[in-house]
Amino acid sequence: METLMAKDLTLGYGEDVIIDQLDITVPKGEITVFIGGNGCGKSTLLRSLARLLRPKQGNVVLNGEDIAKVPTKEVAKQLAILPQSPVSPEGLTVEELVKQGRHPYKTLLKRWSQEDNQAVKEALEATNMMELKDREVDSLSGGQRQRAWIAMTLAQGTETILLDEPTTYLDMTHQIEILDLLFELNEQRKSTIVMVLHDLNLACRYAHHIVAIKDKNVYAQGKPEEIINCKLVHDVFQMKCDVLYDPMFGTPMCIPHGRGRCLIKEVVEDSKEKQAN
């Protein structure tokens, strides 16, 4: 069953078309990753799926309904988005930030409830942020801050979470920490997770489904082990490479060609021979 779909979707800013007549289906209960070169439209597509950008043509369907016709608060109960490098108001604590995720459930007649308290508590526990709930968000490390924002999206109580480059500006340790967290949320809660990632090898390791964007449309989509190969990397990223298999996970692993120190001469010669053939 599909949770999120785009049909004949055309997106852009002013006269510039970024995405042109794109069709895409996001598998329910899986992790989907958008990949592609800089400026190819990955983040633009993600914003449109969250109804933050009005299509020039086509539509986005969320749980069987045209998302443009669904009231904003109803959309926010079904889908949460975490933009790239979000900024919180100065002095806001982690718990106060996470509570913002309950905004879609507030009305003039419905104030803060025990249900809201429970949702915030569960979100803090799921992201291992309970001990930091009284800390100001600005005082946290990059990885901790990102976990606080993810906790806010969890408190929103949606089945679908969109994230725009959630590992940007994080060191390797914190990148893995955040991706492990999202993987666990998918496994334990069956959350549908859609994110933009720049690291192709991490995308292959964590994604059930990859969508490669090129020339304003979908170049290829499917399981990483089915679509990631040397030709895709060359066509999408204009980069020559070898694609091996990650010895720990068995997922595709891209080894880019280029200048640099090489201690194994036979590898270089073998690679040159492959290119010649």
UniProtKB/TrEMBL annotation:
UniProt KW Electron transport keyword: no
Keyword Nucleus included in the entry's annotation: no
Membrane topology: Peripheral membrane protein
GO cellular component: plasma membrane
Domain (ABC transporter): residue spans on this chain: 4-240
InterPro entries: AAA+_ATPase, ABC_transporter-like_ATP-bd, ABC_transporter-like_CS, P-loop_NTPase, Siderophore_ABC-ATPase
Family annotation (PROSITE patterns): ABC_TRANSPORTER_1, ABC_TRANSPORTER_2
Subcellular localization(s) per the UniProt record: Cell membrane
The protein, known as: Iron complex transport system ATP-binding protein
Gene Ontology terms, MF aspect: ATP binding; ATP hydrolysis activity
Protein's GO biological process: iron ion transport
UniProt keyword terms in alphabetical order: ATP-binding, Cell membrane, Ion transport, Iron, Iron transport, Membrane, Nucleotide-binding, Transport
Provenance organism: Gracilibacillus halotolerans
